[in-house]
Amino acid sequence: MSIGERLRELRLAKGLTLEQAGALAETTKQSMSQIEKGVTKEPGALPLLRWARHYGVSAEWLITGKGNRFESPSQDPRPDFDKIASAVSVLTHYLELVNDPPEWVHDPILLETAYLVVEEFGEPSAPNNILDLTKLLSKRLRGSKDEQQEVRGTGTAARR
How far are the Cα atoms of 61, 128, 157 from residue 101, in angstroms, in the given order? Predict the structure, then answer.
């Protein structure tokens, strides 16, 4: 089984579209399709690690098909609460800047994206974190709406 076939199996098991699976690793629907079809045989390391983390499988298994499919519980037994607190801080500041509702700090997608920013780019006091968060959110939330028909994470009304 190839990397693409393993990714397809995982994606379908989670009920994700090609676009959603691609967004997890900041790639496009077309790139995701090419990976699954085997046209792209070796996706980048960072997307592979993001997919492995999201699907709860070991990176070794995802890349090679060998070893234990599922992550060992001993790999990360306890969440990094400092990073979680930093992610909440970054997201809160972001929501204030873009004038979005403060209760969106509880949105799992927004919080996960803020966590990825903190994890990859450092402390929440870094001025680029808000810009990094904005870039990631625009990729992940394109077209996602809340009850008030606003596009989450943008502060703008959705087009009808």
Answer: 41, 22, 13
Please report, as a single letter, which amino acid is at residue 94: Y
Half-sphere exposure of 82 (CA within 13 A, CB side): 3
Asked whether 23 and 41 are in contact (CB, 8 A), the reply is no
Which residue in 49, 147, 157 sits closest to 107, CA to CA?
147
Using a 10 angstrom Cβ sphere, with 0-12 exposed, 13-18 middle and 19 or more buried, the burial of residue 135 is middle
CA atoms within 13 A on the CB side of 11: 24
pTM over 0.85: no
Of 25-34, 37-46, 84-93, 146-155, which one has max mean pLDDT? Answer: 25-34
Distance CA 41, CA 87 (A): 34
* Phi, psi (rounded to 5 degrees) for 141: -110, 10
